[in-house]
Fold:
Amino acid sequence: MEQARVSSIKIAIISDLHVMEPGLLKQDGKAFEQYLNRDRKMLRESVEILDTLVTDILELKPHLVLVTGDLTKDGERTSHLLVADRLQRLVDAGIQVLVVPGNHDINNPDAKVFDGDSATATATITRNEFADIYRQMGYD
Structure:
């Protein structure tokens, strides 16, 4: 019996990016610090972490990148647009990217803009908008 030749497939898995678009922090202050005290994440560094991650993945050249939810801090439209832009670099390099939303990514009431001592609601996205933003990453 002849055995089929199996080629290897390299897969990268990313989870819980929690990227916050920098414009959501208009001015550091009490409101943002209170948020961080109850939900500790590296939000100030999140874009730099994502950029480094994308660069590292481009060097590894996997066949597939699976991004398993919580792409954004709290589903802010601007954060999703930033994440999609960065992940597009992988797609443009011929790497298949598949994303799925997490509990932070769609219709999240915690999506805020921080400005000193105040935090105000900002635009989030629906499931359909998620599919549209990430259409080249598994939704087309």
User: Anything to note?
Assistant: The beta strands are 11-14, 25-27, 64-68, 96-100, 112-115, 118-121. The chain is about 35% helix and 20% strand.
